[in-house]
Task: inverse folding
């Protein structure tokens, strides 16, 4: 890596296109300026990559600015110089006495830079409900930018991200190879008496080592592996206890390449699964097949959800949560993009190169099962990003 | 794990003490109700542990409530039943159509529960600048709770966490053994030609496998390992490229036990370090020694900072950022507790069983060095939590 080089996996032309698409949406929303706080959106627009989102930072897009402006902690300026495509004058660091201080707030610095650049007027959009943009950030911006109207821009940039470019799809295909390897290794490792942490360790090492000579990036969610009664809830991690006979474990992981995620879930049963679990697995597989028959450009996310729901309800099962969401570039705490969801109230129409984690998990009172597929919408239909046996695994 | 059992590492009495201390601070701040959103604070007050903080959730403490109330996504209710010490009636789930929706917001549900319990009056504190409490969350609560006054409670619960109990220190001692093992393994693995991801993989696997038959938990920050010019910035992760000869690499990791972190940093140079780096290492070590001479109950955090600063400035070095912060229980994105910082403007007086990551990193224009120590303030002084050679490593 060198200062002043493009160290990102994308061309400068690709960043220009992303910026142009963002500006179109800003114009539609009547925004003169957009303050971006979501680390994934910051990366998407500038290339910025660093674990610095535990302090306040922002990328500002102006309708008339040639490049966005990155703002963050002073000690992260060199990281921005190394990882973004921005010129030095568009990288601005605040002094360290703004960090976790009760007297100074980093959004005061952001407002000051906006004033300097004449961007403190008109309508300024913020990502009001996005990660790392706090209530205090909003209050400080309102107080500091009294010449402007502050509006919630929602997940405007996330929507630009929803349709992937070919270079993005190429990275997701690389991530998918890592996903397959992680899941195979996890299934090979799990067994009665094996400590839960051992499987988690293998998953993490395999995901980071990658495949075919390229490494994996860290996932936005750590390995989830609820076991036994824990499978009644999807978001448990691991413990010291060994896996026990006659219990199911749901393994949810993601292969990641340059922050692009391909998640996948499988349930593994150690022993002889009860009939109700075998039956649920069959129903879930039938529901996935029904959903894949429907998913294609022009169909609605709600149509995919309906196909899934009709199938499982015919068999007396019920799931009241969404059965999928957009995936791609992300940072902790979520690999979902927070745009489209597969559910009855969603109004998204599918387009080619949308990428979705179809996640038909079923969580009942004291057990659950999940078999998922990461998908890409093609020109004419849909294809799984991974090639991995779609089944309940029994060991 | 079983529903209804205390599956946490702490006694119910310990949780009662935490709640009592929180109530004292609430009373001092004039708060009738406190809405807690920081996942570490939620865990601290109830035991809740799950990777569900990518959706809105809260723990509510009422001055007159016997137990806090946990609120989160419906599919995480079973996780709350498994991991918290709360009775079922104090675990409340919202429907899935609140998740990442443009029409319903989870804080509407939180407000509704407050109304049901008669807690929608008086002064309600929120953690206005804490992780995962968004601008939109604040606006929704203000709109929904118009009978109450919403105030910023700051990091009130974080301050309760700052002085550790003996059971917490015991977990941190377990974590420290993991920290030592991770760092030793990382230093053993790094070498010219070794891909960066290989060292990251080893670090993650070692941290999760733990030591002495107990496993490690996931760290709130992934392994940081800036190398070469990257060491001019502390927050870079890893890439595919192999480590190169005649470059330094700064490795920052943490061992974690039941979410309690003990972080540590060392710089490793592959080859023959330039004189300026050897000199900087000597100065840093002298600065650490000077700071440790000062750190004890009754001293101020600013005194420790001053001892460090005086030493390095005498040698012509300069660091404009804080040189340490409180550590302990945490979730991504930060293992710091966001309370005390070692810097000239901090007013904290040290007390026994405060735990601090003394992090005297120096980041210059195109290189840097960091050698850190996780510390516990004792009854009479200070002791490192880890036993690990304090030096610049040369391979």
Result:
């Amino acid at each position: 890596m060198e200062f002043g080089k493009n160290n990102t996996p994308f061309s400068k032309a690709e960043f220009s296109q992303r910026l142009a698409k963002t500006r179109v949406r800003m114009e539609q929303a009547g925004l003169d300026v957009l303050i971006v706080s979501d680390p994934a959106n910051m990366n998407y627009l500038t290339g910025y990559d660093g674990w610095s989102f535990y302090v306040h930072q922002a990328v500002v897009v102006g309708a008339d600015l040639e490049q966005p402006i990155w703002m963050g902690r002073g000690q992260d300026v060199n990281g921005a110089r190394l990882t973004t495509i921005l010129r030095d004058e568009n990288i601005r660091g605040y002094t360290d006495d703004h960090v976790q201080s009760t007297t100074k707030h980093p959004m005061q610095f952001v407002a000051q830079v906006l004033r300097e650049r004449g961007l403190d007027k008109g309508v300024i959009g913020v990502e009001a409900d996005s990660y790392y943009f706090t209530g205090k950030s909003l209050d400080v911006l309102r107080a500091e930018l009294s010449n402007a109207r502050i509006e919630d821009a929602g997940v405007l940039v996330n929507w630009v991200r929803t349709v992937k470019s070919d270079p993005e799809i190429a990275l997701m295909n690389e991530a998918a190879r890592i996903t397959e390897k992680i899941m195979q290794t996890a299934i090979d490792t799990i067994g009665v008496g094996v400590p839960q942490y051992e499987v988690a360790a293998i998953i993490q090492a395999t995901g980071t080592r990658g495949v075919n000579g390229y490494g994996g990036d860290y996932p936005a969610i750590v390995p989830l592996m609820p076991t036994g009664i824990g499978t009644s809830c999807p978001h448990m991690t691991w413990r010291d206890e060994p896996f026990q006979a006659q219990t199911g474990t749901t393994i949810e992981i993601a292969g990641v390449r340059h922050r692009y995620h391909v998640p996948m879930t499988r349930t593994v049963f150690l022993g002889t699964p009860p009939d109700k679990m075998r039956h649920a697995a069959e129903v879930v597989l039938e529901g996935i097949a029904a959903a894949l028959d429907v998913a294609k450009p022009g169909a609605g996310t709600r149509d995919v959800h309906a196909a899934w729901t009709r199938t499982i309800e015919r068999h007396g099962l019920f799931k009241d949560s969404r059965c999928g969401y957009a995936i791609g570039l992300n940072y902790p705490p979520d690999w979902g993009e927070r745009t489209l969801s597969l559910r009855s109230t969603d109004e998204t129409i599918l387009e080619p190169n949308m990428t979705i984690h179809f996640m038909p998990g079923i969580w009942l009172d004291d057990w659950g099962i999940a078999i998922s597929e990461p998908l890409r919408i093609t020109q004419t239909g849909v294809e799984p990003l991974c090639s991995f046996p779609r089944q309940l695994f029994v060991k």
